Inverse folding.
């Protein structure tokens, strides 16, 4: 006999899977850990199958099968609900995000927003922070994330993360003199901080790559042609954080802020901003 699946249980399942545990899942759902655990138990009883391997903190084969279908069911549910009950949000919202944080931070947040508001098209504009702030001032984007030396106010601040030196696995670029470094272009938020730290430490340096594009910059690191500064939570998997014991100069922390135009903000942009704030609060940890 066909049985009905509780959409709320599927949302809990996805939150636990995507955030890596019951505790982090409970934060994004605004539920207690006990409530989340109970909902996962109900879902497993419904399907008569374990969905999580508790010892390995990962999905079982049954959980993997459910994941893709769960996203599809929730998306259809949310689309129908939006059509029938939600404010008539549709159209385009233009979101600015710096190149280096769009991949590490934004996919789950944008996916969640897309499921919630399927008739809203999010257009991403990836640039350096100064250029994004200029586009925001000129009205060419509706809101933007930034990486800045100072935190925004309580409504703008999202995350603090230290800058770290990054290089190739088993590489030796950090031992060379002059020190080969890769940086973004002249408008890169981290460029001045990195050069100031090297100058203060009396290190000679040479620029190997200076483009605000993660592709070629990351390639110089993986090839052991250079080292570069990254936010700690954005370091690519194919390179490593260089140990402080190697004698590289310390770098400051930077702050991810969310900036809105000083004048009027559209309802869609305000909704996306709220979604981003909640997403960062639930998913990403502050630097110690």
């Amino acid at each position: 006999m066909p049985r009905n699946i509780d959409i709320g249980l599927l949302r809990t399942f996805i939150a636990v899977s995507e955030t890596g545990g019951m505790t982090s899942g409970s934060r994004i759902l605004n539920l207690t850990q006990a409530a989340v655990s109970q909902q996962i138990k109900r879902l497993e009883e419904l399907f008569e199958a374990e969905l999580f391997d508790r010892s390995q903190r990962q999905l079982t084969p049954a959980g993997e099968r459910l994941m893709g279908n769960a996203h599809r069911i929730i998306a259809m549910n949310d689309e129908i609900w939006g059509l029938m009950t939600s404010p008539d949000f549709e159209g385009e919202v233009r979101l600015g995000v710096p190149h280096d944080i769009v991949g590490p931070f934004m996919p789950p947040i944008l996916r969640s927003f897309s499921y919630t508001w399927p008739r809203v098209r999010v257009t991403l504009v990836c640039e350096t922070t100064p250029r994004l702030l200029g586009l925001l001032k000129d009205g060419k984007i509706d809101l933007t994330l930034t990486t800045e030396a100072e935190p925004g106010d309580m409504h703008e601040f999202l995350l603090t993360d230290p800058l770290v030196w990054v290089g190739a696995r088993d590489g030796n670029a950090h031992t060379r003199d002059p020190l080969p470094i890769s940086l973004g272009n002249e408008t890169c938020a981290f460029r001045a901080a990195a050069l100031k730290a090297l100058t203060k430490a009396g290190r000679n340096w040479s620029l190997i790559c200076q483009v605000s594009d993660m592709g070629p910059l990351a390639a110089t690191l993986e090839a052991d042609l250079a080292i570069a500064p990254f936010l700690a939570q954005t370091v690519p998997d194919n390179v490593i954080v260089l140990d402080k014991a190697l004698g590289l100069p310390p770098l400051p922390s930077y702050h991810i802020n969310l900036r809105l135009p000083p004048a009027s903000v559209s309802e869609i942009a305000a909704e996306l901003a709220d979604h981003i704030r909640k997403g960062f609060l639930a998913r990403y940890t502050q630097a110690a």
Observations:
- The chain has a mean pLDDT of 90.
